[in-house]
Amino acid sequence: MTAPGGDTQHGIRRRNLARVLRAVAAHGPLSRPAVAARIGLTRAGVAPLVEELLRAGLLVETGRAAPSGRGRPGSELAVSDRGPAGIGAEIGVDHLAVCAVDLRGRIRARVAADAANRDSAPGPVLRRLSVLLAEATARIAPEGLRPAGLAVAVPGLVARGSTTVVHAPNLGWRAADLAPGLAPATAAGDGSPGIPLTVENEANLGALAELALGGDGEGRPGSPPDFVHVSAEIGIGAAVVVDGQLLRGARGFAGELGHVPVYPDGRACDCGGRGCLEQYAGEQAVLRAGGLTPERAAAAHPGPGARIALLARRAAEGDTATLRALREAGTALGIALAGAVNLLDPQAVVLGGALAGLAPWVLPSLERELTLRTAVAADPGRHGGPAVTASRLGADGPLLGAAHSALRTVLDDPLHSCTPAHSPRSRIG
Amino acid sequence: MTAPGGDTQHGIRRRNLARVLRAVAAHGPLSRPAVAARIGLTRAGVAPLVEELLRAGLLVETGRAAPSGRGRPGSELAVSDRGPAGIGAEIGVDHLAVCAVDLRGRIRARVAADAANRDSAPGPVLRRLSVLLAEATARIAPEGLRPAGLAVAVPGLVARGSTTVVHAPNLGWRAADLAPGLAPATAAGDGSPGIPLTVENEANLGALAELALGGDGEGRPGSPPDFVHVSAEIGIGAAVVVDGQLLRGARGFAGELGHVPVYPDGRACDCGGRGCLEQYAGEQAVLRAGGLTPERAAAAHPGPGARIALLARRAAEGDTATLRALREAGTALGIALAGAVNLLDPQAVVLGGALAGLAPWVLPSLERELTLRTAVAADPGRHGGPAVTASRLGADGPLLGAAHSALRTVLDDPLHSCTPAHSPRSRIG
Asked: Which InterPro entries match (chains A, B) (predicted)?
């Protein structure tokens, strides 16, 4: 096993720069000695790294004197609220959204629009998305922020390490490379290399948001490093996080929880299988079981979250059919997750997306199945499986995760991705 | 992320020693320049590492001149067939086995015995195992081999990083720490630290064997680095390998494929659940469905492999009940594995243990379900899921995997674990 960058002087320096930046981003403001202590280097070793990050504009001195008295007095260090911004975008079945976060993890711009993307070709969708991207970039530019990377969340399978959506059933997309359609948004104005583009399954990005923000919404990590993050919008997906890293699968197709067989002789699924989870806990299945017509509900309640709000309202009002539908969805989720827990032994299961808002009605039956079916894997003497919690981020997870993921290139390799202030800026839009 | 050993000089040297040893173990005999080329160091950088490994007796010169003519001529290097040996042990429901492999990965001793371990307390089982361990050590000692580590395969859950069997349902063990009972086998004779002991789930060790040996039985890796290894003896377990590493789970309990729900309203399982895979594809279920009484079959056909041979013979003779039982086991396996494949997207599924010997009758129905239920995760245009293959190692996998795993401490940190020839030897037994 080789460390990233190898054991060359260059590789070690790059890793140490990243460690300094991450330490200040996660725990700052910090004095120089506190940085050194956090990353296990000497104060003399940390000093030149800090100077480089200050010169590059990634760190700033707060002006407040560091409390520690030993050695040369110095100001505390913080990450800059100017400079690189991570741009996240989300392509939903019926909405588009863009947000920009700074190095401190704060949202600096956010734009969204309803959009009828189902069965629309990628071209028009990406053109509308580019308009939103340009709007977000225009908003952050006056504040000294420039896009450092763009990550796009999609409800479908993405080939590992590529920008190609292999299959997004609810959009009707197959083998669609998003890079050409987003080229205007990622190109630098002057022909120099533009900003990096990543395309990622929405459930994976929701899990990354959970890792970065799930704790208290202030950037302190809250989720345990091993968890299964369930994401439901129109479809149902999951992300598997092991030791704080996404498990992507050989081709990048891991996490297809929606097509785990729950009732093997049950309802036929569009995927060609039978009895898939999505047929019992997907939005359309729940609407139908609750006595609603999915198409009519979609027309009457367009946009992200509207139909979830409808279901939540009906459930809160005690509507019998809705309550039964959500209970049955929870049972199906519990059976599918029991399989996942037996296979993966996570510390927790986090319900994100639409499920977060419906948790009060879904959780009881879900937990009953999970407890019943994971007894072998439970701790001896303790009954039941891992903790099941609803994400605090709810439907925002994938978009926030995308923006944070776009910042990773900066955090992993601070100087490579850093454009000095005097060089031409990349632009989005 | 920090590399093992960190970026200290000591850590870097240790990693480089390990790289040299692994390169020669995997590809030797090799000339010094060939070693340098393989691990990306200069010839001058490699020379002192090689000398240290030669002095420690881990590498030897073959005496054959290296083909490359540049620089100082030298003999080709190979790993030693003396020195440290990995000791693997297996505690089965009705057998015990021990084997020793040398640094070249060759089996140098192997002893086994039938044993009625079901519902026997750990004490007597470990005493019998210690006798076998002493026998194996006595056999390899005259050949200049000494135990460098002991790994024990058990059919149950092992708490991560511990030697404690949390639950082995088919042995009737709960919260059993194996270290005290194996202390005589792992202690050094002179009171110095003995050899390291690891206790591991058998399916995990079967997967490690597959990684190390599955290719051609000659030590060249054959399995892709992402696979699910299914292991069946009395129970059914699985190991999930991601990027060549075992996925262990938060507590070490990952891989409980036998308790993945297949028919959620189906047969009650000892685990408290319902419709678990083990109730349809476990040995007892198959024997019963094939018209046999499991207890009578166990009495008439004791020992590892005997009942599998019985089922294989009946199937080969065309016995209708046996063929149907194996077909139904394949269907249940296919449903459970469809869930695993949708969640994990492995490159391959490998059937090990008893399933390897029954593959001809289990595979057709297994593959039919897997193909039907993983269409979304399949490559577009290509139908079906990952390749399903039967392990060439069959029921030997866990034992061989244990022995190779015991060698890992040497390969990961060659000089730390190396006892110079003149120092007192550790002993087993």
From this structure: ATPase_NBD, ROK, WH-like_DNA-bd_sf, WH_DNA-bd_sf
* Cα separation, B129 vs B111, whole angstroms: 10
**pLDDT for A2:** 39
Structural class in CATH, domain B9-79: mainly alpha
A 10 A CB-CB count for B62 gives 13
- CA-to-CA dists, residue B112 to A358, A363, A424, angstroms: 56, 50, 72
With a cut of 90, say whether residue A391 has pLDDT above it.
Answer: no
Query: Could you tell me the CA-to-CA distances from A232 to A168, A282, A395, B393 in Å, in that order?
Result: 14, 7, 9, 41
Which residue's entry shows tokens 């709810």? A394
Distance from CA of B287 to the nearest CA of A (A): 23
Domain positions in chain A: 9-79, 84-205+398-412, 221-392
What's the rounded Cα separation, in Å, for the pair B325 and B314? 11
B372 CB neighbours in chain A (<8 A) are 272-274
Q: What is the token pair recorded at B268?
A: 């009650």
B81-103 pLDDT, tens digit each: 999 999 999 999 888 999 999 99
d(CA A201, CA A198): 10
Q: What would the CATH number be for the domain defined by B220-392?
A: 3.30.420.40
Q: What is the mean pLDDT of residues B403-428?
A: 67
**Average pLDDT score over residue span A273-290:** 94
Q: Which chain B positions have a beta carbon within 8 Å of A252's beta carbon?
A: 345
Q: Which of B377, B282, B367, B284 is nearest to B331 (CA)?
A: B367
Q: What is the CATH number of domain B84-205+398-412?
A: 3.30.420.40
Question: B108, B136 in Cβ contact below 8 A?
Answer: no
Helix (H) or strand (E) holding B181, with range, is helix B179-186
Percent over 70 (pLDDT), chain B = 87
Residue B86's identity, in one-letter code, is G
Planar angle of CA B386, B389, B395, nearest 5 degrees: 140
The per-residue pLDDT for range B214-268, each reduced to its tens digit, is 654 344 445 678 899 998 877 899 999 998 889 999 888 999 999 999 999 999 9
- According to CATH, the topology of domain A221-392 is Nucleotidyltransferase; domain 5 (3.30.420)
**CA-atom Rg of chain B in angstroms:** 23
Distance from C-alpha of B177 to C-alpha of B242, rounded to nearest angstrom: 28
Helix (H, G, I), strand (E, B) or coil at B60: strand
Three-state DSSP class for A302? coil
**CB-based contact, B174 to chain A, within 8 Å:** yes
Question: Is residue B38 less than 8 Å (CB to CB) from chain A?
Answer: no
Instruction: Answer whether A77's CB lies under 8 Å from A19's CB.
Output: no
Estimate the crossing angle of helix B179-186 against helix B122-140, to 10 degrees: 20
A193–B contact, CB cutoff 8 A: no
Query: Strand A59-65 vs strand A75-79: parallel, antiparallel, or unpaired?
Result: antiparallel
Taking only the tens place, the pLDDT of each residue in B369-397 is 999 998 765 554 444 568 898 888 878 88
C-alpha atoms less than 13 angstroms from C-alpha of B79 in its C-beta half-sphere: 25
* DSSP-derived secondary structure for A65-80: EPS--SSS--EEEEE-
Rounded to the nearest 5°, which phi and psi values hold at A384? 95, 175
Beta-carbon contacts of A144 under 8 Å, excluding residues fewer than 6 positions away, are A82, A83
For residue A424, give the DSSP letter.
Answer: P
Rounded to 5 degrees, what angle do the CA atoms B257, A380, B92 make? Answer: 55
Contact of B16 with A6, CB cutoff 8 Å: no
Residue A282: CB partners within 8 Å, gap ≥ 6? A232, A234, A235, A236, A258
Band of pLDDT at residue A422, cut at 50, 70 and 90: very low
CB pairs under 8 A between A and B: 178
The Cβ of residue B75 has, within 10 Å, a number of other Cβ atoms equal to 15
Q: Which residues of B touch A16 (CB under 8 A)?
A: 7
Handedness of CA A267, A272, A276, A279 (dihedral sign): negative
